[in-house]
Amino acid sequence: MTDVAIAPLAEAVDTAASKAEAIPQISETTEITPEQGYDIQAASILRRVERGEKRIGVKMGFTSRAKMVQMGISDMIWGRLTDGMIVEDGDSISMADYVHPRAEPEIAFLLNRPLEAPVTAAEAMAAVEAVAPAIEIIDSRYRDFKFSLADVVADNCSSSGIVVGAWQSVDADLTNLGMILEIDGRPRQIGSSAAILGNPARSLVAAARLSTAAGEPLEAGWIVMAGGATAAEALSVGDYVRNTVQRLGAVGFSVTE
User: Fold this and answer.
1) Cβ neighbours of residue 91 under 8 Å, at least 6 residues apart?
2) Which of 141, 154, 162, 193: disulfide with 40, CB 3.0–4.6 Å?
3) Which CATH number fits domain 3-256: 3.20.20.80, 3.90.850.10, 3.40.50.300, 3.40.50.720?
4) Is the pTM of this model over 0.85?
């Protein structure tokens, strides 16, 4: 694929996201590699930046070993975050702004200094200002929520929104914190931070490695979403979604028409 072909594909996924319209998988008509998917992703996010949004961090995907095996891959994937994706704790989202949104319980890191690979887990955590309970709102723009690896990478790894709770000190041991994702007060997913690569710090190390390899090292003030601790839950109008993380507190949002 030539560089010229990247632009129209980036425009297609960006338009699908901004208009909340489902599109066919890119791979149905154009054969792309995961590497080319990242080129499409970068160009798509650049369109958002050119419209006035600001880069604020990265999100990690496929941080579960089981998910890697299911997808036939040996490494995580990552997407780029902008301030246009922020949903404030306690606020609401409109279903009209999404194609088929889902929620994943996560942990978020706030960096107090740049983080460039290679780094150890201890070095990565030393760059963390605070941690927080978080929810990622994922929303594949592809029809029927079906996609190949290259497709999902091109679509910014389905990242659509982030909801981050109150920032806490990094005193808590993050390796095995209980996590409960509730909808309307009823537990829908129960898991542990250990599901995130055995330790969310490893996700932070991977984020540094992958972003550095792309020429975009993690910056001070950026947020890193560590990855889903459980399966994602589909959202419906009227839902109130809350993620409670042991020792870190809770974060939530509601869904309107």
Assistant:
1) 163, 253, 254
2) 154
3) 3.90.850.10
4) yes
